[in-house]
Amino acid sequence: MSCHRKTVRQWTRGVVSASLTALVMMLAAAAYSQQSAPVQTSGQTLYEGLCASCHGPEGHGDGVVADDVLLRPRDFALNAFKFDTDADWETGTDADLANVIKYGPAAYGGSSRMPPWETLSGEDIASLVVYIRQLQQ
């Protein structure tokens, strides 16, 4: 009988050990798949919802409505920003982009076609600036 109990204990330990090993492997696989999956940033999500229809999915100024406006939307890949919104003698700085996003280009003598996005939080605007910078590469 003690031999039988030992065998049952060994079998139980083996099953528990195998179950724990399988669980650890499943958790590791799930963690790896989350790390390897493309991550969509909030800046990208905002860009796709607010900007891509004019500026295009890759920022080339070729969005679906770009042909319907008199002035073509800015091509971000060119890195040719014209506004110095903070009077620091540099155009196209992160602060300039943030101001143009928040207040619209019309506030700085540009087109009124792009609306101001004053309702966006500072964090949202900063994430948009980061994403626009990525489109310049």
Summarize the structure.
The protein is mainly α and 137 residues long. It has five helices and no strands.
List keywords for this structure.
0% strand; mainly alpha; Cytochrome Bc1 Complex, Chain D, domain 2; 5 helices; 137 residues; single chain
Please state the CA-atom Rg, rounded to the nearest Å. Answer: 27 Å
CATH level-1 class of the largest domain: Mainly Alpha
Distance between the termini: 74 Å
Protein structure class: mainly alpha
Question: What is the CATH third-level topology name of the largest domain?
Answer: Cytochrome Bc1 Complex, Chain D, domain 2
Order of helices and strands: HHHHH
What's the shape? elongated
Q: In the CATH hierarchy, what is the superfamily of the largest domain?
A: Cytochrome c-like domain
Count of alpha/pi helices: 5
Major sheet characteristics: none
CATH architecture of the largest domain: Orthogonal Bundle
Tell me about this structure.
The protein is mostly helical and about 140 residues long. It folds into two domains: about 1-35; about 40-135, Cytochrome Bc1 Complex, Chain D, domain 2, CATH 1.10.760.10. About 55% of the residues lie in helices and about 0% in strands. The radius of gyration is 27 Å and the shape is elongated. Mean pLDDT is about 80; it is low at about 20-25 and about 30-40.
Write the layout of secondary structure elements.
Layout: H1 2-36, H2 42-50, H3 52-55, H4 94-103, H5 122-135
Helix pairs in contact: 2-5, 4-5
